[in-house]
Amino acid sequence: MNSNYSSDYTLFKKESEYYNKVSNNKFHQNSIPLKYKLVSSFNDGGTINIPLPTFFPIPIVSVDIDTNLFKNPIVNIEFKSLINYNSFIEIISPINPKLYAPLNVIFQLTRSCNNGSKSLLKSWNYGHASIPYSSNIIENFNFVYCDKHPKPGNYVYSIEIVNANGSLLNPALNDTESCSIMSSTFSATAFESFA
Q1: Do 163 and 157 form a contact (C-beta atoms < 8 A)?
Q2: What mean pLDDT is predicted for residues 173-191?
């Protein structure tokens, strides 16, 4: 995370907490200064099996957010997921087993606006090597992203898988793999930037 963004957001949170404490939550929304306002959106993703290989987009989860309240918005994106990876390796030849390439799944974050245009913001890789002869691994895969200064508007932020490849092994091995997203959460929080 960008250090300037982190400092701005920490200061924003402290000032917001102080303002809410002083006001005792009696102020109407329209009377709250812009620097203390934020808009949040949250969504849950369901269980998704990831075909191996796959070369077409698989939607995971998305959120809608309206940033028209702000003049110079910053949108903080946070994605959390629980991934289950299974593999079983069978040795079919006495040749020394070798792993050429591990399982690799590419996640992509996009932003769409109400005029239909779509922007790629960033991508992340999830990977796992089939080192044990058999494995059943459940682990977290999370990331955050700061979308700095998009124009005020209505946006849809989406997470999707755009590519997935299973492990590449030498002919001495026969590998059976599966990968799935057991659960996921996705949130977007917008606030005013005064930088």
Answers
A1: no
A2: 89
